[in-house]
Amino acid sequence: MSMFKPESYPSLSPYLIVGDAREVGRFLEAVFGATVLREHTRDDGSVMHVEYRIDDSVVMMGEAQGEWESQPAHLHVYVADAMATYERALAAGAEGVQAPAKKPDGDVRGGFKGPAGNTWWVATEQR
């Protein structure tokens, strides 16, 4: 049992600064089946910090404010079915970047751009 981090959390989690954390969260729920772990709001109701679990990973984010501007990122997620995930993303409003296809490393991989301009690369190992 780890004493330096919450139980079941990975040691490394991406942290996104976005314009609308709830919009990104709804997208993560629709595409990846993400679930909220915890959320902290500011006095004005905006999201100061929120965490979503995707499989064995945690994505953390906060809403842009002051010097902390929204910044797009690239994230890679292994999923059970890259094509089905890609199609769910498009249905949820994502912009296709690259349709999933078999790559030289044996993975089927593709990408899409979601809310806040983040590019999500999804892959399924097929060796």
Automatic annotation (TrEMBL):
It comes from Lujinxingia vulgaris. Pfam families: Glyoxalase (PF00903). InterPro entries: Glyas_Bleomycin-R_OHBP_Dase, Glyas_Fos-R_dOase_dom, VOC_core. Residues 8-125 form the VOC domain. It comes from the Bacteria. This is VOC family protein. The lineage of its organism: Bacteria, Deltaproteobacteria, Bradymonadales, Lujinxingiaceae, Lujinxingia. Coiled coil: none annotated.
